[in-house]
Write a structure and sequence with these properties.
The chain is mainly α and 286 residues long. The chain is 70% helix and 0% strand.
Amino acid sequence: MTLAKLRAILRLMRVEQWYKNTLVVIPALFSLKLADPSTYPRLAVGFASLSLASSANYVLNDIVDLERDKLHPRKRARPLPSGQVRVEEALVYATALASTSLLLAVYANPIFALYVLALIALNQLYSLYLKEIAVIDVVTIAMNYLVRTASGSALVEVETSPWLFSGIFFLALFLAVSKRKAEIVIAGHEARKVLKAYNREWLNQALSTTAAMVMATYAVYCAEVPLGRRLIVTVPLVAFFLLRYTLAIEAGRGEQPHEIVMGDRATLISALMLIASIFLLVYAQP
């Protein structure tokens, strides 16, 4: 295998998107499980399983969208449309990735494996049907993030506050809606079929609503959960991040969350400060 071929396969796998699977750590973080070194091997296996499952989904999605991507000015450079990887090869890679993912998941925790299977099924429903239906598309994306987080609870066998799950869902919905707006800002309504059903006014209202729900659920979590009371001081950071992120979208910093965060220094700094503050406050001595 040549280096160019290996690079094409890694691009097909969307390795740069694996950061989304760090959501599996959240239940362990907020249940103080990260203080136990024995938790880390299980989290590592869980992260690997989710990442391979995500890559399998990306490969299958590219196969489904192959003919459409060939006509897209940017997506036609992807490994499949450009011919760097053949469809037959891609199917083999997707099968191997999904199989390895499920084997790792079963090894880590059988209940966790059910979440991984649900994640694969949900992504295929999205790729084949749901991504063409306005509103359902962004809700499905948000559910994708929620399944990742819930899988973390099963992985380390802890109960997680419903308020924390609600906050994750609304944050994911905020990010999904913001991605649709960013696509319109950067590429217009022709970037994908479902964008024709959206307009900027509705997207702005949806962003405001989802951002407010993130703030509300996070504030309730901080007030209602004993551990969360330490985090009340981070509420202004959450508000700043959401507002600055929205501003970065309007400025056309990117379409993907990591592009937007990395493309705006203030957004990046606020995100890093928020993560560091949460970790320090959760694990601070009483």
